[in-house]
Queue: 3 jobs
Job 1
Amino acid sequence: MKALARLFAIRRQSGAAARLMACAGACLLTSACVGGVMSDTKIDPQSPIAGDAAKLARSNKDFPKFSEIPPVPTDVRPPRMFGIAAAETVRVRDDIIRKTEPNTWTLQGGETTSAFATQGRTAAGPEAPPADPAVTEAFARELRKRATPPPPPKR
């Protein structure tokens, strides 16, 4: 049995209807603010700021004026100095990158290099003797013998 295609068709609302729904939703959301929802809010008397909050809510002060903004502090460096410090930081960064790029690390000086190598050899301990070729070959032969595949199953 075949179902009718129109039962499963997705209809899209026109642009005007979508805009109307969006405007209606926005009106509903903002109407809650107009009704004075915040005016009947109670302050918890146990709160540590209850006294200050109530006092500020009752005071009907004007908002601060631009003339009441405090003066600019004098102990801050001028903007030009910030730019100079930023340029110095970039210069130091570039210098570090240049000095630490690949193939730039070397041990300078013959005495320093040999002293460093001697110190490393001393810390590593005595040098191990080279392995006997016969022992190595026997070990490899044993591994080859173990690595052979098993015989096919008998049928």
Note: The longest helix spans residues 79-99.
Job 2
Amino acid sequence: MPQEASMDKVELMKIEDTFMVDGVGLVLAPSFELPAYANWKNIIEKVTIRSPEGVEFESEALFSMMHVNIKGPEVSISKRWPVVVTLRGVAKELVAVGSAVFVSKPTKQAVLGHKDA
């Protein structure tokens, strides 16, 4: 069961990698498959990042669709347009691999595409 950073936030993901993209910000991996119900609307939310050592900080995060150029007709549209998490104004060095990202319950439900998230 995921740990909670505060009473109103739940763990969404463990960071496996980060990528700095000019004009976008720090992109966190993994990304999420576009929810099947569609009608995705971007979300901006203050998230909590907890390092493997337990150090926490907050940052504004954008949850948005991003095009990934994957060749091959067998790859679904939802994998070509995943939901990615980006942080603006946060240096790559501040976000350690293995850190946990905590979000509101409605955001987790929207990103994962189901009510029981």
Note: The chain has a mean pLDDT of 85.
Job 3
Amino acid sequence: MTRRIWLNYLAWSLQIALAGVFTSTAWRKFNAHPIPVETVEALGAGQWLRFALGIAELAGAIGLLIPRLASLSAACLALLMIGAAGTHILIIGGSPLLAVALMLASMIVVCIRSQGAMNA
């Protein structure tokens, strides 16, 4: 198989996995799971932030599955994960590794999809 086909398989695999993860984390925010509730309280923000983050994650997850929006959605989710990692490091503590892994996976999708758009 050609390199382009393999990259397409990799991108779709990451997009589907990321969509699943971000749908799951959004669901936890919408259902008032204790961790997101405590996180926004530790930030000193109201619970509106939990809902806003859940909406952003769900919108990004849906966008990952729409070919024309995949690169933009992945870029926005990568930025969101930079914020999440920074929040863990600077404010609430805990490991930022999951946020960093999701950011890197999102950035890989951006790179692959952007390269495909340039070659099309």
Note: The mean pLDDT is 92.
